[in-house]
Predict the structure of Glucokinase.
Amino acid sequence: MGLTIGVDIGGTKIAAGVVDEEGAILDISTVPTPSTPEGVINAIADAVRDVSVGHQVEAVGIGAAGYVDDKRATVLFAPNINWRHEALKDKVEQRVGLPVVVENDANAAAWGEYRFGAGQGHDDVVCITLGTGLGGGIIIGGRLHRGRFGVAAEFGHLRVVPDGLLCGCGSQGCWEQYASGRALVRYARQRANAAPENAEILLGLGDGTPQGIQGKHISDAARQGDPVAIDSFRELARWAGAGLADLASLFDPSAFIVGGGVSDEGDLVLDPIRKSFRRWLVGSQWRPHAQVLAAQLGGKAGLVGAADLARQG
Amino acid sequence: MGLTIGVDIGGTKIAAGVVDEEGAILDISTVPTPSTPEGVINAIADAVRDVSVGHQVEAVGIGAAGYVDDKRATVLFAPNINWRHEALKDKVEQRVGLPVVVENDANAAAWGEYRFGAGQGHDDVVCITLGTGLGGGIIIGGRLHRGRFGVAAEFGHLRVVPDGLLCGCGSQGCWEQYASGRALVRYARQRANAAPENAEILLGLGDGTPQGIQGKHISDAARQGDPVAIDSFRELARWAGAGLADLASLFDPSAFIVGGGVSDEGDLVLDPIRKSFRRWLVGSQWRPHAQVLAAQLGGKAGLVGAADLARQG
Amino acid sequence: MGLTIGVDIGGTKIAAGVVDEEGAILDISTVPTPSTPEGVINAIADAVRDVSVGHQVEAVGIGAAGYVDDKRATVLFAPNINWRHEALKDKVEQRVGLPVVVENDANAAAWGEYRFGAGQGHDDVVCITLGTGLGGGIIIGGRLHRGRFGVAAEFGHLRVVPDGLLCGCGSQGCWEQYASGRALVRYARQRANAAPENAEILLGLGDGTPQGIQGKHISDAARQGDPVAIDSFRELARWAGAGLADLASLFDPSAFIVGGGVSDEGDLVLDPIRKSFRRWLVGSQWRPHAQVLAAQLGGKAGLVGAADLARQG
Amino acid sequence: MGLTIGVDIGGTKIAAGVVDEEGAILDISTVPTPSTPEGVINAIADAVRDVSVGHQVEAVGIGAAGYVDDKRATVLFAPNINWRHEALKDKVEQRVGLPVVVENDANAAAWGEYRFGAGQGHDDVVCITLGTGLGGGIIIGGRLHRGRFGVAAEFGHLRVVPDGLLCGCGSQGCWEQYASGRALVRYARQRANAAPENAEILLGLGDGTPQGIQGKHISDAARQGDPVAIDSFRELARWAGAGLADLASLFDPSAFIVGGGVSDEGDLVLDPIRKSFRRWLVGSQWRPHAQVLAAQLGGKAGLVGAADLARQG
C-alpha cells in the first residue's frame, strides 16, 4: 500500500496529513476543532478531503482521545468531545469514501514512535506521553497491544496513591495527577506560593503570582536555574520514574519512550526520570535495564502512527 | 509431541509429574527440597528420572521462583534458593538427557490455567497467584508474555503505597505486602490485637494469642462468622481488587484468574475481590468488564503449565 | 458577671443569643448573612442590639470561622468571608458599646461543650466538629488552648495522606478531605456510581443519580439499611477514628467530643468511630483510653461557648 | 530547693547527675545498663548514691523511655526494658531515701531545653528528639503538657502514611519510621543500593556495602558532598518538616526545638527541615511562623530536665 492519511484530533485543531511508507508527511491540512460531536466528524472529513487533493491515498487512520473498541471502529467514550458509542469509522468512511481505522491517540503515537521514531530497532516498547495528562501505548513483539476490548495502556489511570488526588475519571490517585504537564504546573504553583523567594525567575516570567505560572514558564525558568522550577521537574520525575519502574515489573520492555510536551525539555526532564526509574526498579541488580528514550517525532507521532496503522489495515 | 514432565520446586518438596497433551498428570514423584543450590539441581534430576520410568517423555519444563532469563535457560535470581545466574537448563539437561525449558513458576501456573483450567476459551488472560506472596502471569493473544528480558509479570512488586511497607525485594509498598497470604495473617493479627472480643472464634482456633493466628485459622473462622476474620478477608480483597483494576487499565484482558492458597477459599474471597475490582475499575461504565475467575488447577497449575511449555518447545 | 451575648456567623444567617451563667439561651435573634465583609460587621451589630432589648448584657463573644489572633481581636484570615486582618473586636465594640471577644468558631463550640455539654466533668478535652469541613478545639487543664498565635487546633488540616486530595487551604491530604460532611457525600457518590445496585434506597431519596446524593439522604438511607450509605459512614469513621488516635498520641485527653452535623446521627456514626479509634490507638493495651462522646449542644455550641468566653473576659 | 539529681536511662549506660538551679551539672556518675528490670532499678539506685556523695541533694528525677502514668510514679510500659506497670518511684525511693519523680525521657529532655536551653524565653514550645526513634515533649504556658493519663507527646507514633511502614508499636506508618536516625540509615542504604556511583564517599566510609552504612557515615559523607548522603538528609527533612507543620496546626507554639543525635548535624539537617516546614505549613501567609531551633543541651537535656522536674516537685 502506498500513501495513507493520518488524522490527529486536538483540542483546538484537527490535522490531517498524507504520510508515505517511511513515515514522512507529504502534505498537511488543519481545520479548527468544532464544538459539537457531529461537527468534529464533518471537520475530519473536510480535512481529509482537503489534504487528499493531488495524492493517491488508500486509507485513513484516526487517532482519538478516549476508549476505542476492539474493532477499531467505535469510540466508546471520549473525555473531551461528547462522543459516547460513536460509530466514527462508519461515519467518516461514508463521508470520504476510504477505509478508516480508528485508534486511541496515545496508541497511535506509540505506534508512530515504534515505527519511525525512538522505538526503531526495539520489538517490545512501552511509550508514555506526558502532555496535559498522561497517555500511553504498548508494543509487544512488534504488535500494538490494544487489549481484548481495545482499552489497554490507560497508564494515566494507574492508581499510584491510595486516597490520592481526584481525577477527572472519577477515581483517586491516578498517575496522571502526579506525572503530567498539569501536575508540573501544580508543583510549581504550590512551591512558589510556599517560598516565593526561591521562585523569582519563575514568577517573573508570568504575572508575578503563583496562579499565573504556566508550563512554558517552568521550563524556561528551570533552564535559568530557578530553584522552584528545577524542584518541580524533579518532583514530576520522581513520579514518572517510579511509574516506569512499575511498568517494567509488568511489561519488561527493552525500551521506554517518553513523549509529550513535557518531554520536549529533553534531558532536563529525562535525566531525573532515568534516575528515579533506576531508584525504584525492583531487582535492579539482577536484570537487564530497559532504556528510557526521548520521543523523536514530537507532536506528529500520533498522526504518523495513525496513518501507518491504516496502512497495516 | 507426546508426554512431557513438569517440575515444581516448592519450599519443602520438589514434584515432577508426567503430563499428557490434555494436561492430565499420569504419574508424579516428589523428593524433599535440599538446602543447597547444587542439591536442588540434583534433586530435580532425581525426581525427573524417577517419574520417567515406564513413560516415553520428550522434554522437561521447570517452574522456578525468581527471574528466568529471556532464553528460558538461566535463573538470574531466585529469592529462596541461593541461585544467581544459575544455568539451570544446561545442568539439568546434562543430568537427565532431555531438552529442558525453565520458566518462572507463576508464569508456568498462568500457562497451566490458560491451557487446561479457568482460562480456556480466553486469549487474553492475566493470572494472579495469592500464595505466601503474590505472583502472576500474562497471556496475550494466546502467548505467554515473558517480556524482553524474561522478567515480566512481577505483579507482586507493583508499588501500591508510596513509602509503604518494606518488601523483601528492598523496595517499599509492594502489592504483595497488601494482597497475599502473609498480608492476610497480618491483617488478622492486628485486628485481633486491637479488638480481641471480635476475634473469639479466630483466637480459639490457635493458641489464643494474636501472634498464634495462622492462615488456615482465618478461613475457618471466617466461615464460622468471626468478625475479625471476615474483615481481614475484606481488607485483602480491597487491595487485590484495586490492583486488578490497575491491571485492567494496563492489559485489558478478557479474564483475570485468581489462584494460590488464598483463592482456595472460593467465593469467600473472590466475591469481595470482584466487588473491589468493580469499585476501582476506571471508566467502568464505558467498557466491557473482564471476568474475575477462580483458578481450577490448584497447586498443580505450575507443574502442568511447565510440562506444557516444554511440549511447545 | 451576668448575661452575655454569643454570636455565631453562619454561611446563610448570623445568630446572636443572650446566654446566662448556666449556658441557657434566654433570647435569640437571627439576620441573614450579608455578602460583603463590612455588611457582616453591621449585621452582627444589628443582631446584638436587637437581641439585647430587655436584657442587661455585659459583653459579647463572637465565634468566627478562620484564624483569630492571639489578642482575640483580629480575624487574620477568614476562608468564607473576605476578611484579612480584620479588626473585628474594635469595629463591633464601636457599634454596640460592649466589650467584645472574638474566637475561632470551633474553639468556641469546644468551649461550649466543655462548660455545658458533653465535656462537663473533664479537664482535658479535645473536640472535633464534623460539619461541611472539620474543625476542632482543645481544653487543657480547664483552659482553652489557643496556641501562641491564636491558631491552634486546626485539626482539619492535619495531613493524613501524603500527596492526597487537594484542600481549599492549598495543601494536600488534609484530614477534613477524608472526615467531614463533604467527604461523606463524596464517598456515597463514588460508591453509588460504582455499584448502583447497592444504593437503591440512597439513590431513590434523591434525583436518582449519584451526583444528586446529599448528606441528609445518606443518613436516612443508612437507617434504612442501604449498603452504600452504611459503607460510606464506615469509611468516614475509619478516617475520623484514626485521626482521633493520632490526637490521643499528641494530647492524651480524658475525652474526645464529636460534634457537627455528621455527629447528629449519634451511634450510627459514633460507634464506628469508636471502633476505628480503638483499632488505631497506639499502645492501646498499656494506657487508659479516652472516651469518645457525642456532643450535646448541637448547632448552639458555638454561640453558647462564645458567650461564656466573653463572660470569662 | 537546692540541688537535685537527674537520671538518664540509656541503652548501654545509666547516668545520674547532680544539677543545680541553673541547670549546671556539678557531678556525674555512670553505670552500665543491666539487662533485667530489677537490675536497672538497682543500678539507678547505685548511680544516685554514688553521685550524691559530697552533695546536699533533695530529690531525684528519672527520665525513662515509655509510658509514665499520670502520678509520675509508675512506668506503664517501657519498650526497651521489660517494665510493665513498674512502680519505679516507690522502688527507687525505698533504695535512695529521697523523693523521686519519674518522667518520660523525651518529656524530660523537652523540659530541660525549655528551662536551660533553646527554649528559654518561650512559653509555648514543642520539642522533637530525632534519635534512633522520634520522641517529643510539649510545653504549654510554661508547663509540661503530660496529658490526662501521662502519655501525651508520643509524636513518634503519629500516623503519617496510611498503610505505611510497620512500627515496633504494632501500628503502621508512624512518623518515627520516616523521621529518625533509623530512617536516615534506611534512606542511605536504599539509595546507595540503587545508585552506588552516587555514594562513593559514603560507601568508602564503611565496609563498602550498603548494609554497612551507619549513621555517622552519613553525616560525614554529607559534609564531603556525597550525593546519596545529602539526599538522605533531604528525605529525612521532608518528613520531619511536614510533621512539624502538622504540629503547628495542632499546638501553634512559638518555637520548635529539634534535638537528638540527628540534630547534632546542625544546619546540615535543620535548614532542610525549616524549608520543608515552611513548605507544608497550612495558611502560612496568614499566620506568624514558629521558629525552628536546634537543641542546645545535646545528650544532657534529659538528665538536666529530669533533675529540674524533681526540683519543681
Summary: The first helix of chain D runs from residue 37 to 52. Chain D touches chain A at residues 162-163, 191, 193-195, 275, 278-281, 284-285 (CB under 8 Å). The CA atoms of residues 55 and 199 of chain D lie 52 Å apart.
